[in-house]
Amino acid sequence: MNRCTSFLFMAGACGLGLGAPPPAEAQSAVVYRCPGPPVLYTDALSVDEARSRGCRTIEGAPVTVIQGPKARPAGGGAASAASAARPGEARIDPAAQRQRDSDARRILESELRREEDKLAALKREYNNGEPERRGDERNFAKYLERVEQMKADIVRSESDIAAIKRELAKLAP
Length: 173
What we know:
The protein is mainly alpha-helical. It is 51% helix and 6% strand. It is elongated and about 90 Å long.
């Protein structure tokens, strides 16, 4: 095999000319692959340090470096509390939170009443699976389609009611 590594060969990059060696200044630095979770790729170790850590040299393979996120300070106290809150983000006043919760409860309760009224109307029209036939339903198949649609609407409405009740249960009384 030529200068292409097996990875590049499998990816088809050799035929595209991507297997060419990097420029001379990029080849001057020795890059090590050190084992362990997480695997470390570095060029900042001496030969003795790399050998003692069990690192192997990487030759001829391109290495992409991605900058990781900055580490947060360890430990508790004011430093960690200040770093936990993002700039412009403040604690919510308990009275304001109670007001938001009561608004949410009021909205959910009105949605629940509206959905229950809708379900009652659907069940009245459904008439235990035997709704009255309309004039445009001379074909029995059209009637059956409408009955199936009504049944699906009732099931959907019942699931909506159950979801609203679950949301109401999550809110503090």
